[in-house]
Design goal:
517 residues; 21% helix
Length: 517
């Protein structure tokens, strides 16, 4: 099933330009510029930029497109588009490096939502750097054919407005300083969204859970106003009961995750494939240096198979950029979920992190940046986004420069020495490690029942640790490192990246029967 066609956007007859072509924008240098917009069918369009001039004609569907040659790093320029008596002028245009960051609420957590102390920390961090941010508005599948409204690019260094997304702003600031050239970050994120929203529905049959999930979303209600009122009443009852499940006979519709967004159907922001069609497809003519993906909190309860779905998403986005932008290379940087233990599904976060690593391990030009030592155990929205940007930035800088990015060290082998006087495990890592201080924590031995027993380890040399078994070798069922919602281990590689979480057992993550709903 496909939600939408590949046809032109439904556009007004007046001259218009795609939403991110606006004041203060940054375009990818060394790549052709794909301008597109609409106007009156048959009308001529004239475009001027950087001392060049081009012409196009609005087609019968009301759309026009132009490919402009690459422009070297620099600016500011002025872009002018005119048709008859109409004119659009885009000022303060720069050419540099453009990244897209997408996902859920932590991507767009705004400046105005954090404490005054955190606001001061971020404001001081941004000052003096002219990096630019452009944020895609929240859009549903029903709006996918509507042109994205034009909005200016924001410059955090000029003083952040309350709505400024903190993580993209901190990341853009670091990249601009590190690369010494203009940097722009496109932001497309939807709070509470599952990865199913970011995939085209025609790939859903390739994943059993996605196929089942699609069936939970019927077509739009015939009477949307009535469905909306019904939803509001059910939501009010839900809130009166403090979020507890009600009797099946009580609510008019199931009390489930989609209450966050409204009645089911294409106007629901979590509609399968909706974010892909309405918030990613419109960006695919914008040349990029790469993509940062920070999402997974909402998929923790259905963590099994997330890696397959993430691989599908990377494949589909790359295919889209190849088709729309002729972009052959599109690196993906996945931010691993940080420490968190306060939510009902936080026990599944270690499994989701494992799936994130599994996705990139079999995908070319994809990288998983560990953040297990970051975050707030009691807040799913950690306030200090600067530390996340500091962890992500080296990978983005390396990829921008065409260099090999940093890799987090990993456990490569675990050898059981069962015949020793005191049986022990020899843990070998692929890179030398350093330890901050105190006992080496984060290791768990799984006993015969699969229950974890915390144990401490000691260094034998920088690539080898020794861990004495607290149980008889025949009872030993597996080893885990930092496989907890809030990891305790603080082992780091010489490059400052934490040792990746590890396990050699085969336990499956818990799964709730109603997790799809």
């Amino acid at each position: 099933m496909r939600i939408l066609t590949e046809g032109p956007l439904v556009a007004p007859k007046a001259l218009w330009l795609a939403g991110y072509f606006s004041d203060g924008m940054v375009l990818q240098h060394e790549r052709p510029i794909r301008l597109f917009g609409g106007g009156s069918p048959g009308a001529p369009v004239r475009v001027s930029l950087a001392a060049g001039e081009w012409r196009a004609t609005v087609d019968a569907a009301g759309a026009w497109n132009l490919d402009l040659p690459p422009v070297e790093v620099g600016g500011p320029y002025e872009l002018k588009i005119s048709s008859g008596s109409e004119e659009i002028v885009v000022r303060d245009v720069w050419f540099g490096e453009v990244w897209l960051i997408a996902g859920q609420s932590n991507v767009i957590w705004p400046y105005g939502y954090v404490s005054s102390g955190e606001q001061a920390r971020h404001r001081d961090f941004f000052l003096g750097t002219p990096a630019r941010i452009w944020q895609m508005p929240e859009r549903s599948a029903a709006e996918a054919h509507v042109p994205v409204a034009r909005a200016p690019w924001l410059c955090p260094g000029n003083g952040p407005p309350a709505s400024l997304p903190l993580l993209p702003s901190a990341l853009a600031t670091l990249l601009e300083r590190g690369l010494g050239k203009p940097v722009g970050i496109l932001v497309s994120a939807l709070g509470g969204s599952r990865i199913s929203s970011w995939l085209p529905t025609d790939v859903f049959p390739r994943d059993s859970l996605l196929s089942a999930y699609l069936n939970t979303y019927p077509a739009d209600p015939e009477d949307y106003a009535a469905a909306l009122q019904e939803w509001r009443e059910a939501r009010d009852r839900f809130e009166r009961y403090n979020g507890k499940c009600l009797e099946d006979s009580e609510p008019a519709i199931p009390i489930t995750k989609y209450l966050f967004w409204g009645p089911r159907g294409t106007r629901n922001l979590s509609y399968p494939g909706g974010a892909f069609e309405a918030m990613i497809r419109p960006l695919a003519r914008m040349a990029l240096r790469g993509v940062v993906w920070y999402q997974g909190e909402s998929d923790a309860e259905i963590a099994s198979g997330y890696g397959n779905r993430l691989r599908l998403m990377i494949e589909q986005w790359r295919s889209l950029w190849l088709k729309q932008c002729e972009q052959l290379r599109l690196p993906f940087v996945v931010a691993q979920l940080p420490a968190y233990a306060a939510g009902p599904d936080s026990g599944n976060w270690p499994f989701l992190r494992e799936e994130q690593e599994r996705a990139v391990s079999g995908t070319e030009d994809a990288y998983c940046v560990p953040t297990t030592d970051l975050g707030d155990p009691q807040d799913i929205h950690p306030a200090n986004k600067i530390v996340f940007a500091l962890r992500l930035a080296p990978t983005l800088q390396a990829l921008t420069r065409g260099e090999a990015p940093l890799h987090a060290p990993a456990i490569s082998r675990v050898i059981l020495h069962a015949e020793a006087r005191r049986p022990y495990l020899e843990i070998i890592t692929g890179a030398p490690l350093q330890h901050t201080a105190g006992n080496i924590q984060g290791f768990d031995i799984l006993d015969a029942g699969g229950d974890p027993l915390p144990v401490s380890a000691k260094f034998c040399d920088p690539r080898k640790l020794i861990l004495e078994l607290p149980v008889a070798p025949r009872v030993y069922r597996g080893l885990r490192y930092n496989f907890q919602p809030v990891p305790k281990g603080r082992l780091y590689g010489l490059n400052g990246f934490p040792l990746r979480p590890f396990r050699n057992d085969h336990a499956a993550p818990p799964y709730r029967a109603n997790a799809l709903y």
